Amino acid sequence: MKKLFAMLLAVAMVFSLAACGGNPSGENSQPPVNGGNEESAEPSQAPSEAPSEALPAPGSNPADDIPDTMTSADSKYQVAFITDVGQLKDKSFNQGTFDGVKLYAAANGKSYKYYQPANGDAATDDDRYDAMKAAVEGGAEVVVCAGFMQEAALKKAAAEFPDVPFVFIDGYPIGLDNVAGISFQEEQSGYLAGYAVVKEGYEKLGFTGGGGGQNPACCRFGYGFVQGANDAAKELGKTVDMNYSWQYGANFQASPELQTMMNGWYSNGTEIVFACGGSMFNSVVAAAAANDGLVVGVDVDQSAQSDTVVTSAMKGLAASVQWAVAKVYDGTFSEIGGKGTSLGAKDDAVGLPTATWSLENYTIEEYEAQLADMASDKLVVDSMVAEEDFAKLAATEWSNVALNIIE
Amino acid sequence: MTFLIQQTLIYAIPLMIVALAGVFAERSGIINLALEGIMIFGAFVGVLFVNILQGVPFFHDAFASKSWLTLQGLELLAMLAAAVLGAVFSLLLSFASVNLRADQTIGGTALNLMAPALVLFLIRIIANQNTLGMAEGDAASWFMIKKSTFGIDRKTDLGFLGETFVNKVYLATYVCILLFVVLSILLYKTKFGLRLRSCGENPQAADSLGINVYKMRYAGTTISGALAGMGGFVYALTTANCASTGDVAGFGFLALAVMIFGNWKPLNIAGSALLFGLFKCIAASYDSIDINGDGICMLAKAPISSHVYRMLPYLITLVVLAFTSKKSRAPKAEGIPYDKGQR
User: Fold this and answer.
1) Shortest CA distance to A341 belongs to which of A330, A353, A332?
2) Domain with A393 in it: what CATH number?
3) What pLDDT is attached to residue B259?
């Protein structure tokens, strides 16, 4: 019996060796066949997207029709995308940014590719740098990097490849001329959402954010949300309650703990929670659906993902990526390179999805009037930096919001 | 109080059923370290099953027309699928440890390492992302039993028992409790149970009385795999919005701890799973627990740091273990491959 087994093993080993040896030659014969395929024609065939539309009509996202991966004929990829932590298809930040890459590439016949830094959520600066390097060596003419955590890796990669323009989404200038920092005035978007839900009639709100209070974008969203709620409550002459927490979202992932906390909020009377961060959304929505609660989405219009989503505090990720990448190809990158550009209501880069929201008492006219006020600086929303988050929230006297900070 | 009981059950039920899975394997003499891996695999199978069947017109229409019996049937079918595939997955462990007499700890570890990798690989192929969720909607709106399920108005008060055990619950919870009771009786009050346990204590003696030790060990591990696979899906359904990510937050290992904590006895296991679930729930939602229903959350008002609450589940486990571990007694022959010639 044992002898037979040993012999079987030996035979298996010989076969696997043969298989190993056999593979490369097989692969060598493959590429010409593949290269012959006219896959390079694919991007130009994809439907072109009107780049002027800042916040694309949700529900029928044209970027979803463009494949996430494509094969270019010369195996060079002109527009590269480096993801933030979390997954590519997070239906939020990464996906929204990548949509911009895909839309631009499809409309202009460019090849594109996404690179996910190794080690997932535990990616280090070296992993991100490796991804950027791989992108440049893969023929990238412009590299779009998502998320402020890319800073250290960007400094290294951008200095090493000074001829390659980098677009740093959710970023800021880092002292290199080939890096364009693009940030958003999330506080405006959060303000609009907070104002809208209080005007709609909700009195018990919640905010749960990702990044553990260290993510500048999430902090701005939250700060704006409180300001909007406060102003709306003041106008209505009432006081609203708000739970505010960074707990259980440090890595933007869904977790049973977050779901339990949200269940607690909802069953204690919280009516609507602003779920501010990537995949965490799942935990909040699960709790909301169980308790007939409601949710405010973030970054992109998330209403298609769940019936509990009333509206979403959006920022024009896809539009700004297209805008920035276009500047690379029409030779005007120097206008934004080395600088930080902050996009807000003026640039049509923040807002709520009026077509899909389920607000009834708060009208689109009121919303548009407010957005116009913001764009013309008649209405100024205070911004903040991440470090002062809790301190600033706690120190501010909120006239009409009873803020309950959960540490 | 209602909230506390419901949330405790949500944590405790997967722990309980998976710990019982561990008992069946270990009582038959096989250390099943692979509980975590089998859970991950079971969760994936169940979620995939739901995801696919959601697209079938029959179930799709059932959701649209709110025919909740069909949806509960879908939930049960998914649990069954997870259990069957979990059992198949555990056959790898049985084969390695019964037929090949391999080291069971290493076999289990291998499955634990393989499951998340395999599941993530499959999810990437199927969905091109790192998470496989439901095709549409939320777990709660498809599968949760609520007042509206029976056409009762949301504001009607069903009384304490009704609110706690009929409103906002999953059928899976009760199926698991029922299975737990039935299988505990099977283990202690039937011929099969006695034979199974004897193989974990003294397989040579059992063999001398005509019991096929190999068969018994296969049976134990297969039941174990089925329960763990089902537990994995129940975990995904009730705490992860019916999504599979190649991860069950260490619940498989927690279940192992609960099993040892419960001294390999079903009743103790149920107790320790509930204890752990209760404190886990307090840790996550201390700010909104209202014990006596007067609208005041005492725990949040108490001058205690929130970190203390988050430490509680682990502190309590340590304290209880310190007092009970002396009496802890593992099945005598567990982990030792059965060799007929040995005495």
Assistant:
1) A332
2) 3.40.50.2300
3) 92
